[in-house]
Specification:
The protein has 386 residues and is mainly alpha-helical. The chain contains 16 helices and 5 strands.
């Protein structure tokens, strides 16, 4: 590609980025399916994302210089966070993409890396059971993916949602642009002289809300809003505005603040969806439940889910009740009492069955792991005979 062509492609991509960011509330679908980044082979990592065009193009740029498979799942053209929260990017879409894209024929492993923000709607265990693919949730920020792929170490910083100035300004543009189109259009039709000042007010309020509002704290936010109202009113009065203009100047900052901070989907970075019942939920980890994996009884041992699931199927053929106890305790995270209530038996019975089932599963999984390790060390049964 010539320098002129590269510059033209860059300019076109930049304009498209700005348009899609400004109108981010609208779906921007791109074609789902499997894409090759660089020159991937059978051992290259597999990453899955939504079919939101802006995300796919940015992720492709972030993966420059890396050989990987990118699996674009159907999400209705909505970004990962909103699609996962709204049910458009869930377990079904992930399984469908894995089964229909042909990725299984391209790689020799069965591990797929999803964005951490997709965890809202994707159940990793269900994906594994339905497709035999292991899900790994990668970093929150796509720019951390190259380091994550190089080290396979997901640091604490990679797990945290950051809201830097660049993303704050993008959010300001995302909310401010549609508001400016609607309010500016109505003002141009009803009172043309108001259009310019209102557009300036919208721009100032959008930037102020997403750069200062959440940092001000609950006690200072009313002061920030009052200052905005005062500034708008004084500006209108000094410009010679009448009573109607002054009334609009008083109401506009408050209305814009409500519009910009209202949590429509429960996932906006500011107000945080206090009107959603789920905001009251709290998650605690029960050490008695999570102490000791089924495979080895230690919480520092990675459990081979495939071996556990296969062993669980064999246990179900021998004793369906014990298999159900393991599903509820190990996969469901229920306590002894909750499991007993679910199955309609006494806690003492569940405790006894849980003890027996754990011992049986440990032995089965350990034997399967020994066989797998022996095959890996020897190159497999077929390789040993060559």
């Amino acid at each position: 590609m010539s320098p002129a062509s590269r510059h033209g492609a860059f300019a076109s991509d930049l304009v498209l980025d700005l348009v899609q960011t400004a109108l981010r509330l609208l779906p921007w679908p791109t074609e789902p399916g499997l894409r090759a980044i660089g020159r991937p082979d059978a051992s290259s990592p597999v990453l899955l994302t939504c079919n939101y065009d802006l995300t796919v193009r940015r992720l492709t740029r972030a993966l420059t210089g890396i050989d990987a498979w990118l699996l674009v799942a159907p999400s209705g053209g909505i970004n990962v966070w909103c699609a996962s929260s709204g049910g458009h990017l869930g377990t079904h879409q992930v399984v469908t993409a894995l089964k229909t894209s042909g990725i299984a024929d391209e790689v020799g492993h069965r591990e797929v890396i999803l964005p951490q923000l997709a965890a809202t709607g994707v159940l990793a265990l269900d994906v594994f059971r339905r497709s035999r693919w292991k899900v790994r949730f990668g970093p929150v920020d796509m720019h951390d993916i190259p380091e994550y792929l190089a080290t396979r170490d997901k640091t604490d910083a990679m797990r945290r949602v950051r809201f830097p100035l660049r993303e704050r300004l993008q959010m300001a543009l995302m909310w401010g642009a549609p508001t400016a189109l609607v309010v500016g259009g109505l003002a141009a039709w009803w009172a043309p002289t108001w259009a310019g000042p209102l557009l300036l007010l919208i721009a100032a309020m959008s930037i102020g809300v997403f750069t200062l509002y959440d940092k001000a704290g609950p006690r200072r936010r009313p002061l920030l809003l009052a200052a905005s109202v005062l500034a708008a009113t004084l500006s209108t009065w000094m410009a010679g505005g009448g009573g109607a203009a002054l009334a609009a100047a008083v109401a506009a900052p408050a209305l814009l603040t409500l519009l910009l901070t209202f949590d429509y989907a429960g996932s906006t970075p500011l107000e945080g969806g206090s009107h959603f019942e789920e905001r009251k939920w709290r998650i605690t980890l029960d050490e008695a439940t999570f102490k000791g994996g089924v495979a080895a009884g230690r919480n520092d041992v990675a459990v081979d889910l495939l071996a556990v699931d296969e062993a669980l199927e064999r246990l179900a053929a021998l004793d369906p009740q014990q298999a159900r106890v393991v599903e509820l305790r190990f996969f469901g995270g229920l306590t002894i009492e909750e499991t007993a209530s679910t199955l309609g038996v006494s806690p003492a019975t569940i405790k006894r069955q849980w003890t027996v089932a754990k011992a049986w599963l440990r032995r089965e999984v350990a034997e399967a792991t020994m066989v797998t390790n022996a095959q890996d060390a020897g190159g497999g049964d077929d390789d040993q005979g060559r």
